[in-house]
Each structure stands twice: as C-alpha cells, then as structure tokens.
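quick one before i forget lol
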Amino acid sequence: MRLWEVWQRGKALLENAGIPHVNFELGLLFEHTFCYNRVDLLGKGEEEAGEPACEAFFAAVERRRGGYPLQYLLGEWEFYGLPFFVGEGVLAPRADTERLVEICLERLAGRGEPRVLELCSGSGCIAVALEKHLPGGNITAVEKSEQAYGYLLRNLERHGSRVDPVLADALDYRPAGSYDLIAANPPYVGEGERGLLSAETAFEPPEALFAGEEGLYFYRELTARYAPALRAGGVLAYEIGYAQGDAVAGILQRAGLGDIRVEKDYGGNDRVVSGIRET
C-alpha cells in the first residue's frame, strides 16, 4: 500500500468514528509511525508504506476509533512548549492546565528564589514548566500513584530537572518549612459528571479525575492542610472545574486567604482560583 493510500484510508476510518480534528490527529499518528508529515506526502505519497508500519499504523487508528487517548498512542504530549512522556496510569496534560502555570508565574513575579510545592503532580508537567521559568526556584513535586510517579521521574530526567520528586499522598504528606507557592491540579470531577466526560477519560486513572463532595473534596482537604504552610505573601493556586469558581474561592476565603482571584481559561471558562496568605 502506498503512503497516500494509507493516509486516505486512515482519514476515512477516523472520520467514520466521529473523531474531531481528523487531519491534526491523523498527521500526528502518521508522522509517529512513518516519520513523514502531511506535507511530505506531496513528494513521497507514491512510496510503499511497508507492511509492518502499515499494521502498526492501522492498529493505532483502530485504538483511537475506540476512544483510546491520542496522547497515549504517541507516548508523549506537549505542555507549555515542552514534551512530556505520558501513558496509561498518568493523566494526559491539558492545554487548560497551562493557565495554572501562567497564573502562578504572574503571582510570583519579582521573587528571585521562590520555594514551590506542587501537589498531585502526575507527569510532572506543571512542576517542570514552573522550573523552566523560575530558574532560581526550589521546587518539590508530590505524587501518590506509583505508575504516575514513574512518568514523573522519566520527565524530570528528560528535562534535566532539579525538581525534587516525592512519592507520597498529598493528604498525608508533611511539608517541610514554608512556601512562596503551593499549586495543585487535584481530582475535581464529581461523580454526577461522569456521563459528561469524553470517551478518552475512560482510559485515564480515575483517581486523578474524580473527587467526592461534588468534586470539592480535595480543595477542602488540601487547603486545610497546606494554607498554614504558606509564607506571608505566599500563594495557593488550584486548577478547578468550570463551575467551581465560587465554591473554591469560598474555601480559600474561609481559610483566611486574601486577594482571591478566579481566572478564566482561553475558552472563557473559570479555570484557576488563587489566593494569598497576607500575614
């Protein structure tokens, strides 16, 4: 089978399955398998694809048709301009989470060597992205899942990172000293929202997605435990679900934090809540 025929057949299969952004996704799978991008097809489309590569490509297409995450098929995904290893057992980085990094950096502007603690770290994408923009920072990343922790370690090695990894449950971890920033993207999907999620989330670790108390459990527990660990002027920042802004802001307010802000993502949805320990 020639390369252009492989492309056309793959495109039809993904379109028939209702996969969005077909050309984008197909292009990534095609380049991952054949090392050619869509533009290369203009000059190389008549080349034979090779049976082993064809089998691998169409196997990946079939898994994608079944909802298997594209990020897992590729084995890596970009976050804040950096590549991160991902796979089963760790949450795939989302573009919306980049807003958490942006807000944290804005809140830390002017602090030369901030002390940072990231909770529920997963792949480590938030911690590494922060580190790249806080060259003098001292950053610790805490992750409970051994599977996810394995990806965290691989990504720290990949980026030559100085982030200090800790295998621990954020609900039990005892922070050492005080921090300029404590950030987290905790599980925040309520049980009643399961039916609203995309098919891809069925393959992602549920413990990284779902939380009790209508998705607010971790915000309450983490705030109670970690707000006292902030230095005066220290920032507590969370990624949130689109309908949780007021509720999470209230949790931070009751914990005594001030200058509480609810920030939107680039789709116009509430996405980050942050507050400052004023004294």
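fyi DSSP finds ten helices and nine strands in the chain.
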